[in-house]
Prior knowledge:
mainly beta, Porin, eleven-stranded mixed beta barrel, 1 helix
Amino acid sequence: MRKILGIWAILTLSSVALKAQDSKPGTWGIVTAVMPGDSAHRWGGYAEFQTRTNGAFFSQFQYYEAKAGVSYDIDKNFVALVGTGTYHTYDYFNVSDGPTINEYRVWEQMTINQFLTPLKFEHRYRVEQRWVDGLYRNRFRYRLNMFIPLNNTKIVARTWFLSVYDEVFFTNKTPNFERNRLLAAIGYQFDKKWIAQAGWINQRNYTANTSSAKNNMILTLMYRINRKNSKEHEQVPTTTD
């Protein structure tokens, strides 16, 4: 764990020391419906819609994605998932011209959760198969997400919490290190169903010759579908993307 946290700290500091930074903040909006599995119902799933804009407060629309997946709880701390989605990028000056980039994606992932007191950790490993404007690409992602409940020892109904994560993106083509994504947010779980988060996310992209980054406000709303007679257990209020 100390080695993982050390690597995480290095990546985080590297993301903050930006060379090419877009000074205008953008906005990400994410709405998710998730049906988690449990010991009685191991199969679950989710659906999500996301939009991004170049400007603050959802001005200058430039991107949306829609995706869904099916999950299987190996046990309460190990969850496998297969997902698929469609992704479309626009020129925010000429949205009416249609998308400039179209992508279709399939992925497989494994999520491992660690429930400590008071910290909660999520390790997410993902392998993606991507078709970007008809060209095939592979990508590999790892995300370390930490949650800190503020007014409870667990993240349950009526709990404020902090969420901090760093995610790294790799490909099998040069440059192998493609992207770094860093998030810090505050959230609130209203009840068993509704969870909201608001915060800041920085995304830095790398190419063979240069790199660029942009800060964004992020707003997320999650609706958790609880099945009848399911056994309640602690869950992390993770963002799917």
